[in-house]
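call fold(seq) -> tokens
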Amino acid sequence: MTLLIVLAISILGLGFAWYLARFVLAQGTGKYEMQEISNAIREGAEAFLKRQYKTIAILSGALGLLILLLYGFLKEDWNLAVKTTFAFFLGAGCSALAGYIGMYVSVRANIRTANAALTSLNNALIIALRGGAVSGITVVAMSLLGVGGLFLLYGGLLDPQKVPFLIVGYGFGASFVALFAQLGGGIYTKAADVGADLVGKVEVGIPEDDPRNPAVIADLVGDNVGDCAGRGADLFESTAAENIGAMILGVALFPHFGIKGILFPLLARAFGLIASMVGVMVVKTDEQGDPMKALNKGYYVTAVLATIGFYIATATMLKNNLWFFLAGFIGILTSIAFVYITQYYTEYKYRPVKEIAQASQTGPATNIITGLSVALECTALPVVVISAAILFSYYCGQKGMEGGGLYGTAVATMGMLATCAYILAMDTFGPITDNAGGIIEMSQQPDEVRRKTDRLDAVGNTTKALTKGYAIGSAALAAFLLFSAYLDEVAHITGKPFHSVDIAKVEVFIGGLLGAMLVFLFSGLAIRAVGKAAYYVINDVRAQFKENPEILKGKAKPNYARCVDIVTLGALKEMVLPGVLAVGMPVVVGLLFRMVGLGAEAVAALLMIGTIAGILAATIMNNGGGAWDNAKKYIETGVYGGKKSDAHKAAVVGDTVGDPLKDTAGPSLHVLIKLLSTITLVLAPLFV
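ret:
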């Protein structure tokens, strides 16, 4: 009965997303000159995604075949091999579809948001958020449908203790696609952004989103393929992997709760989905109101309703054990804490960003030094919050029942992800409003309209930063959950307890060291990829200005399509190496140390220490990059000389340094952390 409720709510969620999409697409598309720009963005985004998914499909096919053969020949269990491989392909396909749906609506919502801004700030806000909510609701609903459907298909109602271990491939497939979607989209968006800024703003002194800049369409395309398609796939794999991890931990409590302890994560997530639907629908603002307050109101409504839903799920599935409800509530409070911490470090109302802006007065060097200090400083509060959440939720689980500590942390993770659909809607709101501002600017609409879209764009920058903070917080909690699930799975396979990892063993220590190294090598490759792809863009923009001097005079149109094509090829070429490295490292470590009987333990160390390093590195990059970006925007409000001042030029350099950190390497590390967890869960039978 519970599973049917979950599947019904999932289908309801998909129906609601369809309703929102219909609402958005029914809105007006504005003037011809606005449509012309929007069409160029849409065509560029769809062309990139088509090429990217073709590359991902080839890589997924090769990896799926490898999983089949490894399970079949090494473990000599072809039934398990077929089921794991099918789950992998299903997870990969659903993750790709989730990303595509988010991008499909966002590149059509941008023009409709821009058109609404001609007459009403409130209408523009509603269209942008509902356009973003299509992605958020679809991601969570499809994740639930996939995990719940596989559980049913593989006979979970008959053998609930065995089936969660059979569907881990679904989470791995989702993680694999998410890594390449986020990495490729991140490289694309930042290469275009850096190229457009350095030549446009710094070299020739033209404004942002100026139609004379050949890279400006590529930049607007990048917002969609990075922040919509990439983040959609990222949060899809988050919800899928964490559902499966929590179900595996629920198996250990089967004597106490039966199948209800295994299905609890799905029901709690389903109630969170309903809460997010309500939250999206209550958002509105006055024409002179603050759009951020309206979005926060929707978030608080979602959080309150999700808390109520969590209590209902605890009462019905966990014998009304209030300790587990408290663990879930700790997770919800953690998500709110991350929202405020991220705001503090990335909004220009507060000290950190103001310090960076102030330092820009003495040049790029002091801007970089101050920004780096803020980036390093901002790891402290998130780590304290994560540590407190894990500790208190663990004790809540222990109080709830003997041996329930790890399940308490799983419940906290469910709580943190209860508002996931609404958070993703806020994230996708960012690129939609950014694109709307670009369309208004490039089509040369009146200044009062641009002021409206600027207000929405500023809010969108904040919501994108908040989502990154939320994503790394949920990744940190989930990583502990998935690490515990990995230990449980190894114990399940071997029939022996596996509760500790002895780092004093040389092989295990090396596994941990390689895990930390992987984080930094992967980040370095991702950042270098942006630099290489941006090099192609900069050269093309300079070449177009040189070939046709009429472009800068505004008498001739630049070749936008040529620039889009150059970034596409550059991004797809550069994403393969870091992606393959991320997948290959845990496999090599596990199979290598398996020869000395320590494969599972060495991989556990790689997973544990790699996760810790990844959480810290991602926090540095996300918040540091966001702070540099908003320091530039703060100066653009008129302080320290405003636009075109020396302080502004220094801040543009800082923003350019921060761009590949906050939009490429940082978000890709979220996926890497969870990919390490899911790949070790899937391949655990091969390491023992």
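The chain has a mean pLDDT of 85.
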